[in-house]
Amino acid sequence: MPIVALLSDPVALRHPLALLPLALSTAGEANGALPLGLEMASLQRWTLIYLGLSSLAFVAVWVVGFLRR
Fold first, then answer.
1. DSSP state of 60
2. How much is the pTM?
3. If you compute the radius of gyration of the chain from its CA atoms, what whole number of angstroms results?
4. Tens digit of pLDDT for each residue in 18-29?
C-alpha cells in the first residue's frame, strides 16, 4: 500500500506503526537504526557466535541423552 493511500485512510492512521517501513533493502539502512550505538558488523558477529554456541549445546544435550539410554 503506497504512503499516499495510508495518509488518506483514517483507519490505517489509527495504528501507531502504520507509517514505519516493514523491511530494509540493505544492511546500510539498518546500521543507522540500531539501538544503543551498535554496529551491524558486531551484531552479526555476536549473532553467529550465539547461534554456534547454542547449536553446540543442543548437540551436547542430545548426545548425553543418547548415551544415557
1. H
2. 0.53
3. 21
4. 555 556 667 666
